[in-house]
Every structure is written in C-alpha cells, then in structure tokens.
Amino acid sequence: QIYTHNDMMSRLLRQKLGPLASVVPSLAERVEGRLAFLQGYLHSDDSGSMEMSLDSATKEQGRVSVSAHTHPRTGRVIRSIVSKLSRHAFQTGLMPIWPMLEIGAPGRGFHSGGSLPMGASSEAKKTATDLLGRPLGLQRVHVVDSSVFPSIPATTITLTAMANAHRIATEAAKLDS
Predict the structure, then answer these.
(1) What is the DSSP string of the chain?
(2) What digits encode the pLDDT tens for the residues 101-142?
(3) Binning pLDDT at 50, 70 and 90, where does residue 68 land?
(4) pTM exceeds 0.70
(5) Cα–Cα dist 78/94, whole Å
(6) What whole-number distance in Å separates Cα of residue 139 and Cα of residue 124?
C-alpha cells in the first residue's frame, strides 16, 4: 500500500529528523511533498507469529496467555525487498530511505491471521477452530476474522475475510433455525 503526504507523515518525518527538523525547518517542508510511504506485508511463512494458550492449570481458570515469536527470515526478506526497490529507483521514481524503515513486531499490524486456524486438528493445535470458526468445541462462539485462516498471503485479505465471515454466519444461522 502506498500513501502520499498527510499530517501524520509530517509528524513522523519531524520525529525521524530529530534536532535537524528545528535547525533546518525548510528541509522538512521541502521533503514532505516528495515522500510516499509504502506499507507492505509478508506471507505468514516469512512473518513472526503469536502463540495463544489457555492456562487451565492455574487458579484463574480460563486465563489466556499470548506470546510473540519473531521469524529468523523476516529481516532478510524485508532487506531483499527494499534492495530490489532501491535497484529499480530510476524506473519507478521511488527511492527507499533505509533509516526510515520500520519492521513491526509480531502482532503489531493490520494483517494478521492463523491464530485460530480453521480445520486444524485439535490434537495438533489447541487453538484450532472448526470450519464454522468455533474454538475449543464451543457451539455458540464463532471467530469470523482472518485469525481463522491457516496462513496469510502477502496480498490484500479483506475481501477473503469478509467472504469467510459471511459463509460462517450463513452456515451458523442454519444450525440455529
């Protein structure tokens, strides 16, 4: 996804420039209008992951714990993509600014899934859901977002998530009638 200038980008640029923003204010103003921000996503095979577990052995029955795990390939894959963008800067008119590169931590973002994979066997994955997005054998709880996808592609997933939510709602409604 590519974003052109907006107020949020101005604040981020001034933050990244630090003391230079106040020393040379015209520098920030000149650069702002030429910036575009690129936000990209990786396939889940190259991304970090989140692990969710149900602590049933503690006094607090039903407490959920979540932990993040980085993937060893993530940084290498992102550097490869940014290098390719750099090599094609003349053709695209876009030059990556390496110091502004930010790699989000696992779980930080808007493109997540696979937390409660649909169709995985319960023995293999305690957080699996059935084909109606029901976790842990619950009958009236349905997870309908991208967290039920077994893996996430690097492309846009909104329409796929919406179609799956519609499918689950339609099938669940048939069970209740």
Answers:
(1) -EE---HHHHHHHHHHHTHHHHHSHHHHHHHHTT--EE-----GGGS-EEEEEEE-SSSSTTEEEEEEE--TTHHHHHHHHHHHHHHTHHHHS----GGG---PPTT-SS----SS-BT--TTT-TT-B-TT--BTT-SS----SGGGSSS--SS--HHHHHHHHHHHHHHHHHHH-
(2) 888 888 777 667 777 888 865 555 667 888 999 887 678 889
(3) confident
(4) no
(5) 16
(6) 20
The pair of structure tokens assigned to 75 is 């940084």
The Cα 66–Cα 79 span in angstroms is: 28
Assigned token pair, 177: 């009638």
Q: What is the distance between the alpha carbons of residues 36 and 9, in angstroms, rounded to a whole number?
A: 9
Q: What value does the mean pLDDT of the chain take?
A: 81
Q: How much is the average pLDDT of 86-97?
A: 89
Q: Phi then psi for 53, rounded to 5 degrees? A: -140, 155
